[in-house]
Amino acid sequence: MKRVIAIATASLFILCMTSCSRLETFISEPTTVVASESTTSASTIIDTVIEQSEENATTQTESSEMETVMVLRINDQVIGVEWEDNESVESLKELAAKGTITIDMSMYGGFEQVGPIGSTLPSNDEQITTESGDIVLYSGNQIVFFYGSNSWAYTRLGKVQDMSASELEGLLGNGDVTLTITIE
After folding, report:
1. How far apart are CA 173 and CA 113, in angstroms?
2. Helix axes of 42-67 and 2-18: crossing angle, nearest 10 degrees
3. How far, in Å, are 12, 45, 56 from residue 16 at the CA level?
4. What is the pLDDT of residue 149?
5. Whole-angstrom Cα distance, residue 151 to residue 126?
6. Helix (H) or strand (E) holding 100
7. CA–CA dist 90, 31 (Å, integer)
8. Residues near 80 by Cβ (< 8 Å), separated by ≥ 6?
9. pTM score, whole prediction
């Protein structure tokens, strides 16, 4: 039995040495394999190591995806936004990943700030009535940030979190602002 364990250990060592760079990519934490005296073979140990490597790779991918966040600022103040899950937001993220998006916004109608993105995004406009804190895409190439309400055909991009209507009106209702979107 000691000979089987020695062969299994040697096989694992050879496998690690020949594919070390592949395993280093996937294994982020130490992997422990305990050999049972009667049933563990070298192929079982190898299968276990590969399985754990694949699990670690999946976890690392999910972690890196969770770490990428689109951040919106108004005049350098970070605004918490719950972004929609749609093609327009994905395109906005791709654009922000290439570099900071800076939009000079202008007051309009006493209830919104509007500014050109500088690119046209895919849109899926639908007739909606906005509320304070809604962020929408207008005409595929402008962001509209509401501190009041309006009814029109827009594509929803997001909704401000943790700010009251009066806080948003104070931030957006007293002159033009600069909006920036970054990936962090």
Report:
1. 8
2. 40
3. 6, 12, 16
4. 96
5. 10
6. none
7. 37
8. 160, 161, 162, 163
9. 0.65
Neighbours of 140 (CB within 10 A): 15
What single DSSP character describes residue 174?
S
Q: What tokens appear for 62 in the block?
A: 């999910």
List the beta bridge partners of residue 183.
70
Round to whole Å and give the CA distance between 126 and 112: 18
**pLDDT tens across 86-118, in order?**
999 999 999 999 999 999 999 999 999 999 999
Contact 86, 126 (CB under 8 A): no
Structure tokens at 178: 């600069």
What domains can you pick out in the chain, each with its CATH number? 2-66 (no CATH), 70-183 (2.40.100.20)
